[in-house]
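Hi,

Apologies if this is the wrong queue. I'm a grad student, and the batch job for Glyoxalase from Shewanella frigidimarina produced an output file that my downstream script rejects. I'm not sure whether the problem is my script or the file. Here is the sequence I used:
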Amino acid sequence: MKKIAVLLSGCGVFDGTEIHEAVLTLLAITRAGAQYQCFAPDITQMHVVNHLTGEVNTDETRNVLVESARIARGEVLNASTLEVSQFDGLVIPGGFGAAKNLSNFATTGSNCHIQPIVENFIREFALAHKPVGFVCISPVMIPNIYGAGAIGTIGTDSETAHAFTEMGGKHKNVQVEDIVVDEVNKIVSTPAYMLATSILEAHIGIEKLVNKVLEMA
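Support response: The file is valid. Your script probably expects a header line. Output copied below for reference.
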């Protein structure tokens, strides 16, 4: 049975992992007959957002690993403990946590860097030539990991696509239900809630992505 690592970035679309995307990822992996293990970095998230009002709570701090445990029902491991040989591939759901906690793309755009623990985590899969699926905004990390010419998508947002290109990546515009595959680097990406207007729309692309990652594994 194939086993897929799932890298989370907190809990909640505005300051962590997009919960629908995470759950759809875990469901798709399980429905395909594979297993998953959630991981998250043990770091402080950029800030805490009130998901009812959209306001930043400046008096509160939260930990990415602790918050990710909410999605994983407590079954989440510290990203620093990864043994890549135990896994066949990786999927990274989106949400602003990918651009605020896993990287700082939200504040620096194409000048962004990836949090060192996270960069090492993803790079282990890349070096082992194991497939990685990037969902929603998380593909902005692709150029920093895989270098110039790596192919991916965030959908059709021109500003984010331009930043992706500035970082050396090759961006492809696609619709919500589609995936983009970089066969050379074993990368799969899909827009999900960068374009989705419903959980069903997000599900279509995510399931295709998971199935392609498993196929490439």
